[in-house]
Design goal:
417 residues, alpha+beta, seven-stranded mixed beta sheet, 14 helices, 14 strands, 38% helix, extended, disordered N terminus
């Protein structure tokens, strides 16, 4: 192993200080030759895209020819050693070992090209080897064009041995079996799941007895998918009086919102009665999903949601006779966030006092108590009072306690049963 007193200086027949490159692909080709000639591996430590610079400096550089305005490359062994374990059996398998080899590539405006600067080709604490260089993970990685071609191989479902031979022969890279697992996962993510949607739906219906409704848009994209198991349907038939509807974001790789519909059983426990994935949370999408429950509209007395007007409008469309209530928790959290925004300069005690007044509005047990609390709030926190008057007073039957006395709530005040 080399040490700092005996550094290894790499030959510079491919890369040298001040070298110019007409485009990013030209630079990448030179870097590839340099890595093969020296047995080294490099990674990007920091960079700034041309698109970002165009926006900030109002330039109009070609982002295809010059995707990066600046990039600093360092040896994969750059940085302090970071063992992956502790104690007596510390795992030393970590690439950083205090190597200082690095260089930068940046756009040279005078000649409209890239220029290589600050080249330090001294590798400390490790000995580059042209035989071992191709086995670094970063050197085995397939670029986008190579990955797309590899997906063509995967489409015919070859075994690992044949696939390894094909990838190594086609791309000249030392692809290992461990790389195949990652490659197959990427292939499944970009191709398999979309193609398998119909078969998954068929399995839900035929094998698991689920009710499934879905819609495919004009661009052959999934607009929404809603499903119920047999058990969910049986629970809804027993306890249809009140629905609790809540959304969760980015629940899958497509980042489609997940709509969860629940009821409350005889033990006071929340039970799911339907799930839906939505392309977007519009009234039209949510109405289409809720229509699966339309046969129970005469039995559904109340629906509880957060303050999402798309959901509220959809509920009123599908269940016109049902009362729509807001979750206490969401209402109070909204007030607390507004208080933080409006009263940043006030002490924590003052903000807590305003929070208490806002909560008292929510839990008012009579019109008189509500009016008294609102008057006090407008006197002590007029900005919050104005906000509530403009955004909440018109819908107070949805979030103030005393309006719920004659409604079916089964004692629930929040969505999370």
């Amino acid at each position: 192993m080399a040490c700092p007193s005996d550094p290894v200086v790499q030959p510079q027949e491919v890369l040298h200080e001040g070298q110019l490159f007409e485009s990013w692909p030209h630079f990448e080709s030179a870097l590839k030759m340099y890595k093969e000639a020296t047995g080294t591996a490099w990674r990007v430590q920091s960079s700034n895209t041309t698109e970002n610079v165009n926006k900030n400096k109002k330039l109009s550089l070609d982002v295809h020819k010059y995707p990066y305005y600046y990039a600093k490359f360092v040896c994969v062994h750059f940085g302090e050693r970071k063992p992956k374990g502790t104690g007596e059996r510390e795992r030393p398998m970590a690439l950083p070992c205090s190597c200082s080899a690095s260089f930068t590539i940046s756009y040279y405006s005078k000649k409209e090209c890239y220029q290589l600067k600050k080249l330090n080709s001294i590798h400390e604490w490790h000995q580059p080897d042209v035989l071992l260089g191709p086995f670094y993970a970063i050197n085995r990685r397939l670029d986008k064009d190579e990955q797309d071609e590899a997906f063509n191989f995967l489409a015919v479902q070859p075994n690992n041995g044949l696939l390894l031979d094909a990838l190594r022969t086609s791309f000249g890279k030392n692809v290992q079996r461990r790389d195949l697992s990652n490659l197959r996962q990427k292939f499944k993510a970009t191709n398999g799941d979309n193609n398998d949607l119909i078969s998954v739906i068929k399995e839900l219906q035929d094998v698991h007895g689920c009710s499934v409704e879905y819609a495919i848009g004009k661009e052959n994209e999934l607009e929404y998918l809603v499903f119920q198991t047999k058990y969910m349907r049986s629970i809804l038939q027993l306890y249809p009086e009140i629905l609790f509807i809540d959304s969760t974001y980015a629940t899958n790789k497509l980042e489609m919102p997940l709509l969860q519909i629940m009821v409350k059983d005889c033990n006071g426990m929340g039970r799911p009665v339907g799930f839906a994935f939505l392309k977007r949370e519009t009234q039209q999408h949510i109405s289409s999903v809720l229509s699966i429950f339309s046969e129970y509209q005469d039995q559904i007395k109340t629906v509880m949601v957060d303050k999402c007007w798309e959901e509220i409008d959809a509920i009123r469309e599908v269940f016109p006779e049902s009362a729509v209530l807001l979750c206490y928790f969401h209402a109070i959290v909204t007030f607390m966030e507004k208080i933080k925004e409006l009263y940043r300069d006030r002490s924590e005690d003052e903000k807590e006092r305003i929070n208490t007044m806002a909560k008292s509005l929510v839990y008012s047990s009579s019109q008189e108590a509500f009016s008294e609390c609102l008057t006090q709030l407008q006197e002590e926190a007029p900005e919050l009072g104005d906000y509530i008057a403009a955004n909440w007073l018109d819908i107070k039957p949805m979030w103030v306690k005393f309006f719920r006395h004659d409604l079916c709530t089964l004692g629930k005040t929040i969505i999370n049963c």
